[in-house]
């Protein structure tokens, strides 16, 4: 049999080949030595880790993520441990609604899964007795005036309560302060209207002026004692106290279940007005200034509120 002979440059050695082979063998020997040394050597290091054996212990992580086109309902946060354990912590994340320009549409962060809702406004430091010194602005309704108020006032905000309810007592100053702010706002609106039209205050009685204030008010803030008028509350299917319900054109529109602070209530009323009134009929924005002057507690809140007022 005939076999093809190998090329001479393969069978013959050269100086360049010997140098490259020697360099490769030296490199392999060096790498082998270093890896063997690293394998058998010890490296002392100090690390800090948290072994959370108590489920009540928590680590607080602060982060701020703005997503312009993502509804809050779809924003979730998942945490993975080093062994791959997944835990959803969305219920502990506080969310703010914003519009397409990044303007806050909600005064305080709200988490639909959390239970720590503010039951009253700590910014209202007066007692109910102090607030009633110049009259009651949150009008008390009874079995006869309640149906009348629903028919006569397009926007009726009612607090259903009982006299033996501690949460109702705590919330009472906040609710009265809201009524006082709405009344002050309506009075300024009436005064501005009369000044614009050149109308003389002395040509109108106190009753006529009060009626004009009620007509001009963006919303009528009232309260009804379910202990005194149980039939009314039974008909309205009131099952918890206090229940704050908005009636629009005589029909129940929605129950408020957010933070029971004046600014949160005002912002919620503004959202409801946008849903039920035409743009030319908006009145709630007039309350913002009086409410912020009364209850703003920090510079950060004032900046947010001013931005929202400019947007409105």
TrEMBL record:
GO molecular function, one term: protein disulfide isomerase activity
Residue stretches making up the Endoplasmic reticulum vesicle transporter N-terminal domain: 2-86
Residue ranges crossing the lipid bilayer per the database entry: none
GO cellular component: endoplasmic reticulum
Organism superkingdom: Eukaryota
One BP annotation, GO: protein folding
Domain Thioredoxin: 208-270
Any Pfam family the entry gives: Thioredoxin
Protein name (Swiss-Prot/TrEMBL): Thioredoxin domain-containing protein
